[in-house]
Amino acid sequence: MASLLLLTSTLFAQKKPQYQLGGALRFNYNYSDWKAGNTKRGGDFGFDVFRLNAKASYKEFFLDAEYRFYPSTSGGGMLKHGWLGYRINEYQHVQLGLTVVPFGIQPYTSNSYFFNINYYLGLEDDSDMGIKYSYRKNAWEFAAAFFKNSDELQFGSDSESSPDRYAYDVGGRNKEMNQGNLQLIYHFGQSVKQQVGASTLLGGLYNLDTEKIGTHYAMALHYMVDYSNWNLKLQYANRKLSPRNKVGEDRSEVVMSAYGSSYYIASHFNLYSAALAYTFQLNKGVWRSVQVYNDFSLMEKLQHGYANSIQNVTGCLIDLKPVYVYVDCALGKNHAWLGGDWERSFSHNTSDAWGVRLNVNMGYYF
Questions:
Q1: 0.85 cut: is pTM over it?
Q2: DSSP secondary structure code for residue 346 in this structure
Q3: How far is CA 256 from the centre of its chain?
Q4: Residue 311: DSSP 8-state
Q5: How far is CA 259 from CA 72, 119, 167, in A?
Q6: Which of 123, 235, 330, 349: CA 20 to 30 A from 275?
Q7: How far is it, in rounded angstroms, from Cα 81 to Cα 141?
Q8: DSSP class of 6
Q9: Which of 13, 133, 22, 32 is nearest to 68 (CA)?
Q10: What b/e readout covers 229-268, taking b as 16+ CB neighbours within 10 angstroms?
Q11: Higher per-residue pLDDT: 6 or 118
Q12: Which residues neighbour 311 within 8 Å (Cβ) at sequence distance 6 or greater?
């Protein structure tokens, strides 16, 4: 948020409209130990995403948008975020559109290509449709937002939310609506830069069958510290989704959708995440830096008999600007994306099997 305010302050100093275009082309190699064909071939290498970024400003108005083109099997083209902004003064601004939800450590609780489990449950790098007010002055940072709904692509009376989206949102026969968010962050320290923060959200879940409105809420507490080349991120979150489904329909799990498909998650859980990183500054030729990290996250399901979901990613980010390369070893248990049962790893699946994925993502950013 602070970097955004600095950027807009610089842009608004100009008397003429300012434009900035960019993007990236990325490819991905993966070796997944639970896929027999993949392992026999020695892994697979293919297209990941092509994206376009646009920024513009004129006087007190500005915009920021990112559109991504994934393979059709991953949802195809989708708007990651896109909003119009108005700068009230150097400390305050307002965004309207598909804007980032102010929840938890920003922009990510993680360092790796895979993010943390938070992402797969809709609580990391998520953008929704609404309006957000942001304030940053000295040590204090505050955000308040109202989201009418998630990124909506279907506008029929009985239309389910499309799964062709970047971030995970409630799907199936329930739709997110009228969500409020509050976030407060305090920054302190000079040689050891630290921040503590608290986030909360409360919103409705409209059921297409019963036409009744349930609720969903979440809260998070986080701490982050930067010392020399070290960075540590710690976060705890709790989430409960209470849909008003048809009589007899299971309410202990809820559908979540993204990347062209859907799965179920437990409707009540705790989330714990810890991410530690160290950056080696090189600045030799094309070698800018190498960041090594370990990201751990745990989903503690609060329904009796449900097994917890675990994810751990050890890897590094190689900065060859304009080329960035993620090299990751991801392990997961009861994880839809890491060898578990796709539909119910994040709900009532109780497998003890671990999945391991070696992943290399490389991209040219312009």
A1: yes
A2: B
A3: 14
A4: E
A5: 9, 13, 8
A6: 349
A7: 22
A8: H
A9: 22
A10: eebebbbebebebebbbeeeeeebbbbbbbbbebbbbbbb
A11: 118
A12: 114, 116, 117, 295, 296, 297, 298, 330, 331, 332, 335, 338
